[in-house]
Design goal:
Elements (H helix, E strand, L loop, with lengths): L4 H7 L6 E4 L3 E5 L9 E5 L11 H22 L4 E4 L15 E5 L21 H12 L3
Antiparallel strand pairs: 1-2, 2-3, 3-5, 4-5
Length: 140
């Protein structure tokens, strides 16, 4: 994997405003926040996308993410937030190291704004699509 700004943060070459750290995870304030309390949560394992992340690192993120969401809500004074995670440039990933954004959504502006151009699930294709994904997830 190519070196990223997160590689430098993990090595201590670039400072961050740390909010959490353990053996597998580092969380810190985003320097370009969408709202007050915007936090980035990264695995210490350096891979670009979620699909590349080990089960151990994934579990570590999963254990701490809810706790950090509760902390961000408490400190930001909001009861709503987005958790955002992008994979690949077409999916708007800018730093190619897995990372999760916790973005508070305050009552008065700020936070994440999204356009969700929802389609409609094709009822005839859905069973085969679900089976194909189920089989792939089970290693078939």
């Amino acid at each position: 994997m190519a070196e990223t700004i997160f590689s430098k943060i993990l090595r201590g070459e670039i400072p961050c405003h740390e909010v959490y750290q353990d053996e597998h995870v580092l969380a810190f304030l985003d320097i370009g926040p969408l709202s007050k309390g915007h936090v980035l949560v990264i695995p210490k394992e350096e891979v670009a996308t979620l699909a590349e992340l080990s089960d151990e690192a994934s579990a570590a993120i999963g254990r701490v993410l809810p706790r950090l969401c509760r902390a961000v809500m408490k400190v930001s004074g909001t009861d709503q937030y987005n958790v955002l995670q992008n994979n690949g440039p077409r999916a708007h990933q800018a730093v190619f190291h897995v990372h999760f954004h916790i973005i508070p959504k305050p009552l008065e502006g700020g936070g994440l704004g999204i356009d969700w151009p929802a389609g409609q699930l094709d009822a005839e294709e859905a069973p085969a699509l679900a089976e194909a994904i189920r089989a792939a997830a089970n290693g078939s």
